Amino acid sequence: MTDDIKRIGEGLGRLTRLASRARARSVGYHGVDLNGVIVMATLVRHGPHRAVAIAEHTGMDPAVVTRHIKALGELGFIQRDLDPSDGRAVIVSATPSGHEFFQYHVSIKEAFFSEIFRSWNPSDVALLGELLQRFSDDMEKSLNNRTPNQQER
Q1: For the domain that residue 80 is a member of, what is the CATH number?
Q2: What is the pTM of this model?
Q3: Running along the chain, 153 residues long, what does each successive block of 10 average in pLDDT?
């Protein structure tokens, strides 16, 4: 199993580098970076939220979320409204332009992956999807169960 773990670690490292290259090529639609897309994904998929809830949901720093909310608002992709339950707080939501932007981003990503998997057997694509989901779920559980000191080791 040790050789398998080593091979997986090397493969994930290579995948991370390749994903960074792919992101660098795809980012640029209105200058929105990956974190901006993640904020938009949260709003499109889960509806209106306060900035702090977006930060908690995504694991991003609240200041980073706030900067992206401001930038996305300037592009007309999100709108800010007072929270009806607390007039001091602001709820952000995706505008129709924001939904359009996010759908465009998704279509680019899906076209990219479709090209990669074009020669794959459909059952292999399904298996990869299942295993990646399982791995991501287990990794998230492991990270959530660690104390800050354990994460630094």
Answers
A1: 1.10.10.10
A2: 0.78
A3: 89 90 69 89 96 93 95 96 86 96 90 94 96 93 76 51
Number of domains composing the chain: 1
Gap between the Cα atoms of 23 and 142, Å rounded: 26
What is the structure's pLDDT at 85? 85
Three-state SS letters, the chain? CHHHHHHHHHHHHHHHHHHHHHHHHHCCHHHCCHHHHHHHHHHHHHCCECHHHHHHHHCCCHHHHHHHHHHHHHCCCEEEEEECCEEEEEEEEECHHHHHHHHHHHHHHHHHHHHHHCCCCHHHHHHHHHHHHHHHHHHHHHHHCCCHHHHHC
Tell me the residue type at 105: H
Residue 26 lies in a domain: no
Residue 125 lies in a domain: yes
Contact 50, 89 (CB under 8 A): yes
**Structural domain of 112:** 31-147
Q: Is residue 73 part of a domain?
A: yes
- Establish if 153 belongs to a structural domain: no
Query: What pLDDT is stored for residue 34 in this prediction?
Result: 84
Q: Given this model, what pLDDT does residue 2 score?
A: 86
